[in-house]
């Protein structure tokens, strides 16, 4: 299968390209900059120049492919609403291009706000609808194309997709811990983050491309929930700084934008995904990766 991948030079995109090529697929990756193009080419994929604001380029990439894995998103927390509207425009363009073809469209999503007081499951609908909602309501928009002849699939990734080279949430917490001289958690630290190793996520993405029926919702979750206190303690131990608790107000002042994410309690299950795809996560746990020194906070 010839697969068009957006976010191809990113953390999940790069690993997904490697897994796609290993499975015998042909890959073309969207690249916004020369550096991104070099990373895509080095991974063994063809380069498609363009960005999320260039809908003609997005349309051309999808039109030439047998399927699309859309992983890109503008992670600009100072212009998050605008980023959401862009996300909606891109998904609408991809879905319209693939309509009536039964080609797969896999769209990255998240696990925030799905359930309260229990682990979120694949049966929980996303509450985010419309261009002005979180991530532009792109999950619901993508799934709506299942009724228009698109094999659309929602990929809900864990808060921490971890491993050597991760520059996401945990890496940010590590940088803050080194800068502040203490690794922090919020309140009693009993809230949990779901987690999965990058290799397991890449393998799930390929299985989803090959197997998932139209309208599927999948959870990229290996660990249902890792306590934020344990994450902070592991980071403190790995970096060599003490661990401390912050109340919510002080956490906002000390940790900035990541405080509201680290305060979340978002246990999430993946039993349906494992059964549907025959997916068995086998990578290291989040705490194992932290203790292995993958998050130095430099």
UniProtKB/TrEMBL annotation:
GO MF annotation list: aldehyde dehydrogenase (NAD+) activity
InterPro entries on file: Epimerase_deHydtase (IPR001509), NAD(P)-bd_dom_sf (IPR036291), NAD(P)-dependent_oxidoreduct (IPR051783)
Domain NAD-dependent epimerase/dehydratase: 3-84
Signal sequence interval, chain numbering: none
GO (cellular component) term, any one: cytoplasm
UniProt xrefs under Pfam families: Epimerase
PANTHER family to which the protein is assigned, alphabetical: NAD(P)-BINDING DOMAIN-CONTAINING PROTEIN-RELATED, PROTEIN YEEZ
Protein name per its UniProtKB record: 3-beta hydroxysteroid dehydrogenase
Organism field: Luteipulveratus halotolerans
């Amino acid at each position: 299968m010839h697969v068009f991948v957006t976010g191809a030079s990113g953390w999940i995109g790069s690993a997904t390209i490697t897994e796609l090529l290993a499975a015998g697929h042909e890959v073309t990756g969207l690249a916004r900059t020369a550096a991104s193009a070099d990373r895509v080419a080095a991974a063994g994929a063809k380069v498609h120049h363009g960005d999320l604001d260039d809908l003609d380029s997005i349309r051309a990439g999808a039109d030439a492919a047998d399927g699309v894995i859309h992983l890109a998103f503008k992670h600009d927390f100072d212009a998050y609403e605008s980023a959401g509207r862009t996300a909606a425009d891109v998904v609408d363009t991809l879905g319209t291009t693939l309509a009536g073809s039964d080609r797969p469209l896999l769209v990255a999503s998240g696990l925030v706000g799905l359930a309260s007081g229990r682990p979120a499951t694949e049966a929980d609908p996303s509450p985010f609808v419309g261009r002005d909602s979180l991530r532009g309501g792109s999950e619901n928009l993508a799934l709506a194309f299942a009724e228009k002849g698109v094999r659309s699939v929602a990929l809900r990734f864990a808060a921490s997709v971890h491993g050597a080279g991760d520059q996401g949430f945990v890496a940010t917490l590590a940088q803050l811990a080194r800068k502040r001289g203490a690794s922090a958690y919020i309140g009693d630290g009993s809230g949990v983050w779901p987690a999965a190793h990058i290799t397991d996520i890449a393998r799930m993405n390929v299985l989803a491309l090959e197997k998932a029926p139209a309208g599927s919702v999948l959870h990229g979750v290996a660990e249902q929930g890792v306590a934020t206190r344990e994450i902070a303690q592991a980071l403190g131990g790995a970096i060599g700084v003490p661990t401390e608790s912050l109340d919510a107000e002080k956490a906002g002042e000390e940790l900035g934008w990541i405080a509201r994410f680290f305060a979340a309690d978002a246990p999430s299950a993946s039993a349906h995904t494992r059964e549907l795809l025959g997916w068995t996560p086998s990578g290291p746990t989040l705490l194992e990766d932290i203790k292995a020194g993958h998050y130095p906070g430099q």
